[in-house]
Write a structure and sequence with these properties.
This protein is an all-alpha fold and 149 residues long. It has one domain (31-144). It contains 4 helices and no strands. Helix 2 (34-61) packs antiparallel against helix 3 and helix 3 (86-102) packs antiparallel against helix 4 (105-144).
């Protein structure tokens, strides 16, 4: 199925287009208090700061980052000690931060939809694939580390 091989950033790009479009047609604003805007910027920065360690983990293990390619190594260190999906969490956190900075409540709703679709169509497929490729090693890791946080 094509949704299983769609790169997760494309889910968030679609969510962004829908969220911005919905906000143009039917404005649904959230507050613009300074603390909210600062929190949103903090979320954007936090999400961005996670990505170098994720990418370095993939590079160090010589395994592809692209969900359309088969994994050659199981990542269990760095950000993968805390979450089995730190890159998707980073995308979500940054995306939600953008929605907060823009004051666009639609983006918060479409962000939730995007991560649910990523979970259903990408993450679960990846987990099945990792279980086939790495067997008991993956199952042990899966029992120690939560899918999200």
């Amino acid at each position: 199925m094509i949704l299983q091989r769609t790169p997760p950033p494309l889910y968030f790009l679609a969510a962004l287009i829908i969220g911005v479009g919905a906000n143009i047609l039917f404005p649904l604003r959230i507050g613009s208090q300074d603390w909210l805007v600062y929190s949103g910027w903090g979320m954007i920065v936090a999400g961005i700061l996670v990505m170098p360690s994720v990418l370095l983990s993939f590079r160090g293990a010589s395994t592809p980052f692209d969900v359309r390619r088969d994994p050659t190594a199981l990542l269990v260190t760095g950000p993968y000690r805390l979450s089995r999906n730190p890159s998707y969490l980073a995308l979500l956190i940054s995306y939600m931060g953008i929605g907060i900075v823009l004051g666009n409540a639609w983006m918060l709703l479409t962000g939730i939809l995007a991560i649910v679709l990523v979970d259903v169509f990408v993450v679960r497929n990846e987990e099945r694939q990792l279980e086939v490729v790495f067997g008991d090693t993956y199952l042990a890791y899966k029992s120690r580390v939560r899918r999200w946080l």
